[in-house]
Amino acid sequence: MKEWLRKKHFKVSIVWPDQHMSVFDGDWLKKHCFSAAARQAMQEELFLNERYYWDSKLRIPTADYQEVLHDDKAALAWLLALRRVGIVYLKGAPAEEGQVARLADRIGYLRLTFYGHTWQVQDKAMANNVAYTSGKLSLHTDYPALHFAPGVQFLHCINQAVNGGESEVVDGFHMAEKLQREDPEAFRTLTSVRVDFTDTGTDYCDFMLQSKKRIIDVDAEGRVVRINYNNATRDSVLDLPVHRVQPFYRALKAYVNIMNRLENVVTYKMEPGDIVTFDNWRLLHGRRSYISRPDRLRHLEGAYLDWDEVMSRLRILRKAVHGEL
After folding, report:
1. Quick one: the chain helix, strand, coil %, rounded to 5?
2. What pairs with residue 149 in β-bridges?
3. How buried is 323 (Cβ within 10 angstroms: 0-12 exposed, 13-18 middle, 19+ buried)?
4. What number of other Cβ atoms are within 10 A of residue 310's Cβ?
5. Is residue 5 packed enough to be buried (19+ CB in 10 Å), middle (13-18) or exposed (0-12)?
6. Which position among 39, 50, 127, 193 has the lowest Cβ density within 10 Å, counted as fewest Cβ atoms?
């Protein structure tokens, strides 16, 4: 047994040419070696890239809002599920403004955008965003008109509509995987063609945004890392050679058709006090049309964060709870 312990906790001493000495722990060297297995393990430990893909059968992970605010284990479980599944439901928040900011304080700070630190999803006269109407919102990601779209979105239900207003979400990474399997050419098109997005108006301040994005972003290994799709802000400009126009629209239609299959869409209806938190780089979300009354106007408060801040807090909580990283 003593011999085994000595081998498990061995150290390596190196005397360098200038005669100074370095001592390395064996476990540290093993963890930081250049083997494919060690590198993969380190990547997963630091970035948690493994995802749980889902369809309409998903039971959305649920947590208690107050527990998340005050208990590190609950907060860690929330962020781990948010990273792996892409969506977590929080119950029990006060049905009043300010709760998304409180939740963001648990992580770090909010992302300021042209719609403010937080924004109110309500019917608005002369609306500068389709979200501020009672009409249907088709599945989309938020803010592809920004070169660096927010990574995480919070939506807090303060008041729900009399009829309608159900939320819809789809796992965009899973749908991209399905597209690659069913229509490889469409997948190649959407991962290579850059599309123009635009957004113009006045809110927190006046803005005139323009960006070029691939609908599906992949990394150097070909793994899907981000979805950029919002038909409401996709520009009328299509900066492509004419022979690539029809293939692009065919590919986009194939992807949208997969997204909208009933077996792929999760539908839920928020009630006052509910907060949904989700990965804006991965999920496409939408909303069915609704009817409000003057005494019962639908009201959601929203906010954004970036994945850098979320992952930072996740690592800190993991170290505090488990004492390791």
Report:
1. 35, 30, 40
2. none
3. exposed
4. 20
5. exposed
6. 50
Beta strands in 216-296 (DSSP E): 216-218, 224-227, 266-268, 275-279, 283-287, 290-291
Token reading at 226: 């981000």
Helix and strand numbers (H, E) in the chain are 10, 18
Is 115 in a helix, a strand, or coil? coil
CA distance linking residue 147 with residue 210, whole number of Å: 8
Above pLDDT 70, what percent of the chain? 96
Is 285 within 8 Å of 140 (Cβ atoms)?
A: yes
pLDDT of 106-165, one tens digit each? 999 999 999 999 999 988 766 667 777 878 899 999 999 999 999 999 999 999 998 999
User: What does pTM read for this prediction?
Assistant: 0.93
> How far apart, in whole angstroms, are the C-alpha atoms of residue 14 and residue 11?
10
